[in-house]
Amino acid sequence: MHTPEAVWREAERALREAEHILAITHVAPDGDAVGSLLGFTHALRSLGKHVVPTCQDVPHARFGFLAGLNDIRQSAEGEFDLVVALDASDRTRLGAVFSPERHAHLPMLVIDHHITNLQFGTLNIVEPHVSSTAELVLKLIKQMGLPLTPQIANALLTGVITDTQAFRTTNTTPASLAAAMELMQHGGNLQEVTRQALLLRPFEHLRLLGAGLVNTKLEGRVAYATIPQKLRKELGVHEERGDGGLAGTLMTAQEVDVAAVFVELVSGDVEVSLRGQPGFDVSQLALELGGGGHPAAAGCTLPGPLKDAVNHVLPRLRQLVREA
Ligand code: AMP
Ligand code: MN
Ligand code: MN
Question: Which CATH architecture has domain 5-199?
Fold first, then answer.
């Protein structure tokens, strides 16, 4: 899949014609979601556009070093003439910010890099071989000749660094390194971004990670763990979702080919994080389950209870390992 140059030019035209832009990134935003949203917002504002950056969920405080983080709103008030969806593979990932009644009639530019993207916009810049949505925003900024300020550079560098886990994942390409170099040359602080957005975390994440590791089961080459709400309460964890980095940590075991972490939400639904070693593709399973992602890292949300979600996913993971 490759986005034709004509679509890039149409996207530029749509952005230049728009005056009020609603920018939405995906629920439970990660570094690429926040970084591409803020980078895009700063850049389009330099053109005099009114841009409202939104996300259903409040971004994590670890992104507090990024300029404009507190401008991100959890709802979209006002009238718009263009919606821009960032780092989201389908409309449900936009969460409650996107209102079918108020926004479905508007043109929508989708900028994303998930292989499972459903091309849900009226214009779709979707490049699955690109490591982060932030790199696509950088390309758009350069195409449009907009100034690349240190604020924008740090926001976009956050996307590159978090989605490549500091250039360690299989989606890292020479282009990711070139993008990072360019962002550093324009004031991006690689060490600061890596430390703030990737390495530092609240102590409670470590507690969750520790308890999750103790709970982890290894069956053949499939590792899986559950994080019930009860466990969060026992550990005194304030955050209602997230796995403290458990899914990624399971992939550091030599004995593991694929991993799944099941997080019970307050609503009773279960957030599933899937991971695969190089050569394994968990993205299609996530898509079949109503979610999406990348070959090496994907996810979905399933109805509870936890046990049902586990029983639904585990056989399919075993099959995935058998077929590899
Ligand atoms: P996570 O396991 O939450 O770190 O997510 C890994 C990857 O899967 C990221 O690229 C997410 O954007 C994607 N992903 C996670 N959950 C979902 C979902 N419910 N729907 C679509 N994509 C998802
Ligand atoms: Mn993301
Ligand atoms: Mn991303």
Answer: Alpha-Beta Complex (3.90)
Query: Domain segments of the chain: what residues?
Result: 5-199, 203-323
Q: Does ligand 1 come within 6 angstroms of the Cβ of 27?
A: no
C-alpha 16 to ligand 1 mean position (Å): 31
At 231 the pLDDT is: 97
Report the run of H or E that residue 261 belongs to, with start and end. Answer: strand 258-264
pTM of the entire predicted model: 0.97
- 104: tokens are 């479905």
Mean pLDDT computed over every residue of the chain: 97
Q: How far is the CA of 74 from the centre of ligand 1 (A)?
A: 20
Pick the closest to residue 159 from 74, 300, 39 (CA basis): 39
For domain 203-323, give the fold: Diaminopimelate Epimerase; Chain A, domain 1 (3.10.310)
Taking the CA of 112 as reference, the closest ligand is 3
Query: How confident is the model at residue 1, as a pLDDT?
Result: 72
Confidence of residue 269 (pLDDT cuts 50, 70, 90): very high
CA of 118 to the centre of ligand 1 (A): 14
Neighbours of ion ligand 2 (CB under 5 A): 30, 32-33, 87
Q: How far apart are the first and last CA of the chain?
A: 23
Residue 274 carries which side chain, given as an amino acid letter?
L
